[in-house]
Amino acid sequence: LAQPLPEYDILLSIPGIAETTATSIIGELGDIRRFQSANQINAFIGIDLRHYESGNFLAKEHITKRGNPYARKILFKCIHNIASASHTNPCHIADFYEKRKRQSQTTSTKPHTIA
Fold first, then answer.
1. SS3 for 3?
2. Do residues 12 and 68 make contact, with C-beta atoms less than 8 angstroms apart?
3. Do the Cβ atoms of 89 and 75 come closer than 8 Å?
4. Positive or negative torsion for Cα 115, 28, 10, 20
5. Using CA atoms, how far apart are residues 52 and 65, in angstroms rounded to an integer?
6. Got the DSSP string for 18-45?
7. Whole-angstrom Cα distance, residue 49 to residue 36?
8. Which phi and psi angles does 53 have, rounded to 5°?
9. What is the CA radius of gyration of the chain?
10. Does the structure show a pLDDT above 70 at 111?
11. Which helix (H) or strand (E) holds 83?
12. Does residue 22 form part of some domain?
C-alpha cells in the first residue's frame, strides 16, 4: 500500500530503514503534508519538549509523550538502526547522533534529541 507514495522511497533511502519500518512510519503518521512544520510532527508524535520555569528556576526539559506512542516507538527504533548502520553506510543523521552523544553530559544520549 505504501509503495506508490513518494515518502516511501525517501524513507528507504535512509540507511537503517527497511520496508517494514517505512510502511509503519507512513501508517502511523498518515499524510505528511497535513503538517505545516516539523514542530507539528513532533507534537503529533509526542517528542516536543515540555518547558517549566518559575522565577529563576528552570526545570529539566522532558518530552511530553502526549502524542502517538506507536509512532514514537518506531521513530526511536529508527534512530538506533540508523546509528547502528552508520559504520557501513554513513549518513548525516548518524553524524548528528554521534555529535549529540559526545556533547551529552549524561551517561546515555536521548534519541528524542535526534528525532
1. coil
2. no
3. no
4. positive
5. 15
6. -HHHHHHHHHHH--GGG-SSHHHHHHHH
7. 18
8. -145, 150
9. 16
10. no
11. helix 69-85
12. yes
Is residue 1 situated within a structural domain?
no
- What angle in degrees, to the nearest 10, is found between the helix axes of 69-85 and 19-29? 150
Domain count, the chain: 1
> Containing domain of residue 49, as a range?
6-113
| 82 within domain boundaries | yes
Q: Which residue has cell 522511497?
A: 9
Q: Does residue 45 contact residue 67 with C-beta atoms inside 8 Å? A: yes
For CA atoms 7, 9, 14, 20, the dihedral sign is positive
DSSP letter at 81? H
Residue 39 lies in a domain: yes
Grid cell digits, residue 73: 516507538
25-84, pLDDT tens digit by residue? 999 998 888 999 989 998 999 888 887 777 777 777 778 888 899 999 998 888 888 877
Amino acid residing at 1: L
CA distance 63 to 55: 22
Structure pTM? 0.68
